[in-house]
Design a protein that fits this description.
two-stranded antiparallel sheet, 3 helices, mainly alpha, single chain
Length: 95
């Protein structure tokens, strides 16, 4: 896919980017190369490829899930500016 100068200007406008007129041809060439690569990748048959969550098949080392601190909720509730029924009250920020 080959992009023209008008295409680059429209993309820049939609992305709210300010680009120099002298750079438009370079952007058109680079963006066209990227789109050609995407087209090439889309043409590959991946029906027999199993999707992966991560490119490396490793297990994450996890630490034991154990409580290391005592519950200090009551202490923190006492010093909070405003609480009600065990909840912290905060000012409304969205109207």
């Amino acid at each position: 896919m080959s992009l023209k100068a008008d295409d680059v200007k429209k993309i820049a406008h939609l992305a709210r980017l300010n680009i120099n007129e002298s750079d438009i041809d370079d952007y058109a060439t680079n963006l066209s190369s990227i789109l050609d690569l995407v087209e090439q990748m889309n043409s590959i048959d991946t029906s027999n490829v199993t999707p992966m969550a991560h490119p490396q098949d490793l297990a994450q080392r996890l630490r034991p899930d154990e409580v290391l601190e005592e519950n200090q909720r009551e202490r923190f509730q006492k010093i909070a500016p405003a609480t009600e029924n065990g909840l912290y009250l905060v000012p409304k920020v969205i109207e």
